[in-house]
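On to our target:
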Amino acid sequence: MLRIRRFEERAAELYRDGEIPGFLHLSVGQEAVATGVCSALRASDGIVSTHRGHGHCLAKGADMTAMFAELMGREGGTGHGRGGSMHIADLGAGVYGANGIVGAGMPIAAGVAEGFRQRGTDAVVAVFFGEGAVVQGAFHEALNLAALWRLPVLFVCENNGFAEFSPLDLQQPLAPHQRASAYGLSAQVIDGNDVEAVRAAAVAAVAELRAGRGPAFLEARTYRWRGHYEGDPERYRSPEEVAQARAGDPLLRFTADADLEEQVAAEVEAALAAARAQAAPPAEEMARYTLAEWSEPAYEAVDPGEEIKYMDAVREALAAELESDPGVWIAGVDVGRGGGVFGITRGLAERFPGRVLDTPISETAVMGLAVGGALAGTRPVVELMYVDFLGVCFDQVLNQAAKLHFMTGGAASQSLVIRTQCGAGRSSGPQHSQSLEGLLAQVPGLKVVMPATAEDAYGLLRAAVHDPNPVVFIEHRLLYGRRGPRPRPEHLVPLGTAAVRRQGTKITAVSWSRMVHEVLEAAQALAADGVEVEVIDLRTVAPIDRETVAASVRKTHRLLVAHEAVLTSGIGAELAAWAAGELFYDLDAPVRRVAPPFSPVPYAPGLEHAWLPDAARIQAALRELSLS
C-alpha cells in the first residue's frame, strides 16, 4: 500500500511540474483494494484494470520504472509511450491492460478467463471497475455471460463514492452488489479501506473460482481523496467531506516503521530517475505497433474441376483451423447448436466439443471475448451476425481490439477474427443490409477482408486466423450459394493482395465482394465492342493493395471503382483521391465511381433495385469512361 501511495504522490508532483502530459487519474485512498485483491492472486492469474489503475498494476507486479516512463511518454514505458497513464499493461506480470473506457474491461476479462480455460489452466482473472461502470451495458453483458459460462472472474467494484463528479445516489437506484446478485453471482460488500478484510474476501472468492463454482463479486466501499483527475476543481464535494474520509486512510491502520518508509521512498526515487533517463520515442516511429509484423503465407493454387459453395468454403476453412490449432475457438450467437443464422458453422460444435460456443445476444460481450481471448494467447473467431450490428459493440472493436497492440508497444496479441456478413438485395431493410467496410477501414489497427469467390473465402479466412492482427472478415450473403473451384486443404491467400480477375488494356475497374461479379459481367459485355476492361478484385480493403491497382492504371490510363457501400466517403473515395494524387500523370480521364446514393438501403424491392448498382449501370459508366 505504501509503494502505491508514494508512487501516486510522486506522479501528482510530476504532473504539476509538467513532466507528465495528458490526464492523470489517481487512486490515493483506495490502496487497500488493489493490495488485498492482488495478494490473493498467483503470478499466472490475470487482472484487467481501469483508467485509475496504477495501484492495481503495481500490486500485481508491474515494473515501477516502466510505469513512470509510460506516464512520462518515454520509449522505455510499458507501452513505449503509446498508451499513457490510462493504458498501463504488463502481460508478463498478468496485467492485461488498464482501460480508458468506463466498463470496457469487464467483457475483456471474461475473454481472458475463457482463454485461460481453452488453454486448460486453472488461472483466474480479477477485473477492477468503479461504481459508475455498473450502469454500462458492458457490465450487464459481462456478468450475464460470466455467470452463464461459470467463468473464473472476480468482479471487483471499487465504490469510491463518485462516478466522475456525481455521487452514487444520483447515478443508480440499487447498490452494485445488488445488481450482481440478480445474475446469481456470489456478491458481498466489504470495507475497502481494510486491507486484511479485502484480502480475506478475495482469498475465499478466488478459491471458489478455481473450484469451478463460477464468478464472484466484491463491492469494496472506499473513497478517493483526490479529484476525478488531477486539476479537478472538485466543486461537487466539500473539503470537510474529504477530510472526514481521510480518517479512514487504510495506511493509518498499520504502523509503518521508518526503515520501510525510507526503503519505499528510495525505490520510488530510483525508479523515477531511471525513467527520466529514458529517451522519448523517435518521431519517425510514430506509427510503429499499429499492426503486428509477420511473414504472410504463400498463395497456393486451386485444383481445377471440383467446385464448392462459398458458404461451404467458409465452414471448411473454420474446420481446418480448429483441426490444426488447439488455440482456435469460435463464439457467437447461435453458432453452436444452430450452426448460425446462415448455417455456416453447422456441425462444427459436434466435431469440436467445447470450442464452438453459443453466446447470449450480447454483441459487446462477444467482442470482449475475442479481445480477452487473444490477450490470453488463443486465437478466437467470433461471429457478428450482421455487420449492421457493429454499432452495438463498436467500442470493443474501435478502442480495444484495434488499439491494444499499439497501446502496449507491441506486447499484446490481438490475433482474432470477427466474421460477419453484409449486403443488400433481399429487402432486409436499412438495419440489415448495409456495407460498412469504409467505417472499419478508417480504424488504424484493423484489417478488413471481403472475399468475392469461394476459393478466396477459404484461403483468406485461414490466413486471417493466422494473422496476429484483428481481422474483420465480411462475407456477402448473396454469395453464400455461389460456387467456385474447390481449394486445396493448404490453400492460403495473403491478406492485402489484390487479384486481377480479367486482363484488359482500356480501363482499370476495381471492386470487391459481390460487386466484382457485376463488374466482370459488364466488362464481358463491353469486350464485344473492343473495349477491354481490366478487373481487379481488392479482396482486402484494409490494407489496400495499391501496387496492383497502380500497375494496372499505368497500363490502361483510366480508373473506375464500383462498390456496394454508399458513394460518399469510403473505399471508393479513398482510391479516387489516392489516384488523383499519386497517378495524376498516368490518368487520361477523371476517376469514375459507381455506387449507391447517400441514403439508407430501402426496403421496397423496387426502390432497393434502383438503389443498388448492377452490371448494366457499371457497363454504362465504363462505356462513357472509354470515350473520354
